[in-house]
Amino acid sequence: MNEFVLQQQNEAAAQHNSPKEAIRRLVWKICIATLILMAIGSATRVMNAGLACPDWPLCYGELVPAKQMNLQVFLEWFHRLDAALIGFSTIALVGLSWWHRRVLPNWLPWATTFALFLIVFQGVLGGLTVTELLRFDIVTAHLGTALLFFITLLVIGTSLIPYQGTGTVGKLPWLGLIAAILVYLQSLLGALVGSRWALHQCLAGDQLCGVMYSHIFGLLPPTVATLAIVFISWQTPALHPTLRRLANIAGSLLILQLLVGFATFRLHLQVEPLTVTHQAVGATLLGTLVVFTVLALRDTKKSISYL
Hints:
mainly alpha, 11 helices, 0% strand
């Protein structure tokens, strides 16, 4: 009996120290850092700190601009620092994936390489936002690429976790995919509203009201799709508890996002923490829907172990 328990412990320890497990843990750490990066980026924008460092990639020609340091400079500098750490971590992720490719799923090295391409492109866009003086289309593409990078990491990480499906998901995978796409597009509209200061211009002089209203009315499709996921998940018998929990989380995040968005609109973007929260909750909602979709797709195959 003791030998059997010891064997199980050794197998669990080996699995815990396996390359796949190490890569999975690294992916989730980068996911968290990316979510923080997007929140800091939002804070940088609403605090008018996007050009606090007038040069790139250094800040006032230094790695740490101690003499010029204030809140705005710190936000922009820390935003770049977090982005650099994510970039180096992604390089390490790619290196691990290719080094251990013989004991990993065939798709994993290519997926991590795609993630590296996105973060490099994201860095280029980050530089252009400074050199092009916060041009709205570049700023919008900057956030859009960050979200794509975030999504890619979530797909990789979720595909590597142990999961045993129940085979009762029905159409939920495709509904989750639709909801995730709609939330992503709505996030891009929100980035466009923010980068063009459309709310301020519409309220002040009836300019760019079309951009602002596109974001307001654009919330309807992702709201309906997300609520449909919650409702169908409640009505689906024997649905995996993880999927049901994720659906409930998505519903809660949706309600919170609508409330924060309404408060942000009513206060005319004057409360910076609300605006940052709006961005962060939206990204978290998108991430929740992506994880839900990946697990639901795996559920259709009734996966019983690592992919």
